[in-house]
Amino acid sequence: MFLFLNICVITFCYTQAYRFDYVYSQEADGWLKLHQVPTTWEDAYLNCYYEGGVLASPENENMKLALTKFNILSNCGIYTGVHATFGKGAYFSVKGIPLSRMPVTWAPDEPDNSDNAEDCLVMLSNGTMADTKCSETFPYFCYISKEQAKEELNACGTMDEEYSLDTRTGSCYKVHRSPLNWTRAFVACAREGGHLAVVNSIVEAQIIATLWNNARPHFVAGKYNRDIAFLGFKTIENKFQWMTIHGQTLAAAGYDRWSDGQPDNPGVQNCGAMFRNGLLDDNNCDNTLPFICEKDPASLLSDPLSQ
């Protein structure tokens, strides 16, 4: 495999507005977002999916030019959405475009399929490609096309109609019925522009519980409890101290009503959840459960750091 530096620093010029964290590219005819923190190919794929986009690939000359233009450090490789994880040697983009239809120029001595274990493709700033193990970590770009962005933003500042605004709290909520572990759930909410829900009052607990009960359980393969959903709190170091993801104790946040007998397994069940009756539960962070996201209606339209 070609050797790359995995740390990139890139500055963009904004030409059109979509989301504060996406940059419009005329060449790509859509919006690109650089994720500078290197990650595995699977995590890159999932993160782009959670944001409503796709892991960017040089599917045509214009997209290749866009990725080359923004990836300005010559020794910095970026993951592309091109992979052969479904079948050895059968490379396709995440949108199903075969590699044979892409304007690919290989880096010297590439592809080499080292150890018969390199099923993902990375791209240098000069546009050349190399294969690599999908478990290696690289920065990557997510892409949202104009077609994806044509839909009108709803009251929650997103095209995702599963988010609903409640005027009593001023927050938007979404129930994810497909189970993830707590860490994956945290990332999924973050990529949607929100966070795992934090309960700040009895009223908010009732709102979330109502949404949770109205979201009828649907069948997803696997063993998990369909009547418990992860929320945004967990133990931090001290296994007896529960903190929200915003750094407050549950009492300081405004809601600390546990179900009878809960928490019942300190030090083992370190992540927070809620029963359908609105009362709190401790759960194993590695369990897969439904989860509830919360977001500020304006969070995708402006940079929170500038407010």
Mean pLDDT: 85
CATH homologous superfamily of the largest domain - what is it? Mannose-Binding Protein A, subunit A
Low-confidence stretches: 2-15, 303-307
- The helical percent reads 10-25%
Written as H for each helix and E for each strand, in order along the chain, the element string is EEHEHEEEEEHEEHEHEEHEEE
CATH fold descriptor of the largest domain: Mannose-Binding Protein A, Chain A
Q: Supply the number of helical segments.
A: 6
SS-based class? alpha+beta
Beta-strand residue percentage: 25-35%
What's the SSE blueprint?
Blueprint: E1 23-25, E2 30-39, H1 41-50, E3 54-55, H2 61-70, E4 78-83, E5 105-106, E6 120-123, E7 128-132, E8 138-145, H3 146-149, E9 164-166, E10 171-180, H4 182-191, E11 195-196, H5 202-214, E12 228-236, E13 238-244, H6 250-253, E14 271-275, E15 280-283, E16 289-295
Parallel strand pairs: 5-7
Antiparallel strand pairs: 1-2, 2-8, 3-8, 4-6, 6-7, 9-10, 10-16, 11-16, 12-13, 12-14, 14-15
Can you describe this structure?
The chain has helices at residues 41-50, 61-70, 146-149, 182-191, 202-214, 250-253, and strands at residues 23-25, 30-39, 54-55, 78-83, 105-106, 120-123, 128-132, 138-145, 164-166, 171-180, 195-196, 228-236, 238-244, 271-275, 280-283, 289-295. 17% of the residues lie in helices and 28% in strands. A hairpin with a 4-residue loop joins strand 1 and strand 2. The chain is α+β, with helices and mostly antiparallel strands and 307 residues long. Helix 1 crosses helix 4. The radius of gyration is 21 Å and the shape is elongated. It folds into 2 domains: 23-149, Mannose-Binding Protein A, Chain A (Roll), CATH 3.10.100; 164-306, Mannose-Binding Protein A, subunit A (Mannose-Binding Protein A, Chain A, Roll). Strands 1-2-8-3 form a 4-stranded antiparallel β-sheet. A 4-stranded mixed β-sheet has the order 4-6-7-5, with helices on one face. Strands 9-10-16-11 form a 4-stranded antiparallel β-sheet, with helices on both faces.
